[in-house]
Structure formats: structure tokens, C-alpha cells
Design goal:
355 residues, 10 helices, alpha+beta
């Protein structure tokens, strides 16, 4: 551990990755799989996705030990053609399933210009940005959909949670500028942010959730008594529905009443559905020409007139890019509650704690 310039305790990504890998190996994952998942989880923290990164380690370990995740899974392709494929994750760690899916989508896009890979029998896989950015290194655009790992969103006008914070993400390569990376849920706030507020003892802003009477709910410890609100009212509900169909129904994965709450039912398989697409830019034009156009549009937006009091116009993904640079240089923040939860995992698994 070390102290950051902000007097907050931090750790290096190398130390954190080594600790997470040790934990997963002790929980039953093969060494290579443990290293892959650890690298992806720490990358999430480097990007600033604190609600979807290493903070999830205790839950993943509980699910592995309870049998809710298959530690020795056989991830395999069950349907395939030139441009599309369906993967059965055999209830593996979602990170492993989606890493394989992204690699396969890229491989198909190299051959045909586009690769769409769906996944079933997967699990929670952290932030969508981890996978949608993989095609960027190949001059490809990435697109990602997933069914959320619990339902907290009712249909517009309804009072029964049949939809989740079903995430979608898009990544577009640029030349000199950071890539455009949009990673979002169709709800005002992801449920992980609600849990983080509860962990920190903070109130939620008005507009995140409502109770069963439709009134604002700001106490995150009462989140089970209410519902998340969609972005754009009925439009966010519609977006969540479409994502559920593309990532769930199309892949023979769970949706609606079939969705298993992966936090509450740690010993049960979730059959999470996800999908990723890789689109080769060279199928349309020379990649350098496209990326130069993206750069120009980014600069036009950033340099456009601002409203009074606005210091900077940000592009999707820019703040995550800036956080990654900062955390690689100065360490990943370790709030007290997170450090205590990781120490607890180390004690339960009888492994060396995070340094």
C-alpha cells in the first residue's frame, strides 16, 4: 500500500492483480483463468469503474464457493456461421466467457468484415467497456449488450421489476484522440452505484429510485423497497427491453421472471446472456481516414461553445481514459470499506493479504 497525493490509501495495479489472482486460485479457478479474470477486474478499476471491478471480488468468491459459478467450465461454441456464433459459457465466470466472445467476434470480423457473438450460460462480467474496447486494437468498432444480473426496473407504468440495468456499450477508434467509449445502462443509475452509496453511508440523489408508491427513494439501504428509474422515461424502458431481447432471448438466456439475482442466490446458475459485435472499419474505408474524421469531430465537440459555468465538454470515455492514466501513475484508490472487504476475503481463503 502507498499514500496518494490526495492522502488516500492506494495500491498498484500489479499488487492488486496479484492479490485477486491468488483469491481466485484459492477459490478453485485454474491459474490461467484466475490471471485472466484478475487482469480484467483490475482494468475495470484502472478505468474508474469502481462499482464493477475489484469491489465485486467477495461476491464472486461466494458464488464460486457456493457452486453458483462453475470453476472448471467448458466454454464452447454451440452454433456458428461465417459472421456469427453462439457460445455456451457452461456457467463460467462471465469475464472468461466474454473475453472469449470478444476474441471470436474479432476473428470473424477479420474474415468477413463483421462478427457478432452471443453468449448464454454466462455470469456477471464487470463493465461492458472491458470487452467493447477489445476490437479497437484491430481498427474495429465494438458493440455490446447484456442482460443485467438482477431485475430492478419495471415496465414503464408498471410496478413489477421485469427488466434489469441491461448495459450497452459502443467503442469507436480514433487516431490521436482517445477512442469514443460509451458504456451505459438504460437506468438513471446502475444498481452497483446504489450499493456503493449504501457501503459509504451516503444518500442517493433524488431521481435514482422511487418507492412502491412512486415517491422518491433516497436511502440506499431501502433499495429493495423500490425501483430504479429509466433514463428518458419510457425511452429507457424501451431500450432495456430491446437489449433483453438481443442479449437474452436471442441467446436462449434468462430474461424477465427467469433472471436470477446473483447477489441473493449465490448458489444458483444465472444463465446470463450477453452479445458482442466487432465491425471492421476497413470494410467501409481506410481505417486511418475514418479515425482522422473521428478526431476532427471530437475536437469540434470539445471546442464548441459552452454554457455559462461549464469548464469543459467531455466526450464519452475521456474521463475513464484520464482516470486510467492517473491510476497507472499514482495507484488505485483503496477506500477503507473496500480494503476491509478484501482483507476479509484473504482471511476466509487463508491467502496472503493485499500488500
Amino acid at each position: 500500500m502507498r499514500q496518494s497525493t490526495k492522502t488516500e490509501e492506494t495500491t498498484t495495479d500489479e499488487d492488486l492483480e496479484a492479490f485477486v489472482a491468488r483469491a481466485f486460485i484459492a477459490a478453485g479457478l485454474p491459474d490461467a483463468d484466475a490471471q485472466t479474470v484478475a487482469g480484467l477486474m483490475v482494468e475495470a478499476d484502472l478505468r474508474g469503474s469502481d462499482t464493477h471491478g475489484v469491489i465485486r471480488l467477495p461476491l464472486y468468491v461466494r458464488r464460486l464457493r457456493a457452486g453458483g459459478i462453475n470453476a472448471k467450465a467448458n466454454i464452447r461454441v454451440i452454433n456458428e456461421s461465417a459472421s456469427v456464433a453462439l457460445i455456451d459459457g457452461d456457467n463460467a465466470m462471465g469475464h472468461l466467457v466474454m473475453h472469449e466472445a470478444a476474441l471470436l467476434a474479432i476473428e470473424k470480423a477479420k474474415a468477413t468484415g463483421i462478427g457478432w457473438v452471443g453468449a448464454r450460460m454466462s455470469n456477471h462480467a464487470g463493465p461492458a467497456a472491458l470487452y467493447v474496447t477489445q476490437p479497437l486494437d484491430h481498427d474495429m468498432i465494438g458493440l455490446y449488450f447484456a442482460v443485467g444480473s438482477n431485475n430492478h426496473l419495471p415496465p414503464w407504468g408498471g410496478s413489477e421489476s421485469l427488466l434489469g440495468t441491461n448495459p450497452m456499450a459502443v467503442a469507436v477508434p480514433a487516431l490521436e484522440e482517445p477512442p469514443i467509449v460509451l458504456d451505459m445502462a438504460p437506468t438513471v443509475a446502475a444498481y452497483g452505484k446504489v450499493r456503493l452509496k449504501a457501503q459509504r453511508g451516503e444518500a442517493m440523489p433524488v431521481g435514482w429510485m422511487i418507492d412502491r408508491e412512486g415517491k422518491p427513494l433516497t436511502d440506499p439501504k431501502r433499495a429493495d423497497e423500490g425501483y430504479l428509474l429509466p433514463i428518458g422515461d419510457y425511452k429507457g424502458y424501451g431500450l432495456s427491453l430491446i437489449i433483453a431481447l438481443l442479449a437474452g432471448a436471442l441467446n436462449r438466456a434468462a430474461l424477465g421472471r427467469e433472471v436470477v439475482d446473483f447477489v441473493k442466490e449465490t448458489g444458483k446458475a444465472t444463465n446470463t446472456g450477453q452479445a458482442i459485435m466487432a465491425l471492421a472499419v476497413e470494410a467501409f474505408m481506410p481505417p486511418a481516414q475514418f479515425k482522422k474524421t473521428v478526431d476532427g469531430f471530437i475536437r469540434d465537440i470539445r471546442q464548441s461553445r459552452r454554457l455559462p459555468g461549464v469548464e469543459r465538454i467531455w466526450l464519452p470515455g475521456e474521463q475513464s481514459h484520464a482516470k486510467r492514466l492517473d491510476r497507472c501513475a499514482h495507484g488505485i484508490p483503496m477506500p477503507k470499506a473496500l480494503r476491509e472487504s478484501l482483507d476479509s476475503v484473504a482471511g476466509d481463503l487463508k491467502i496472503a493479504p493485499l500488500r
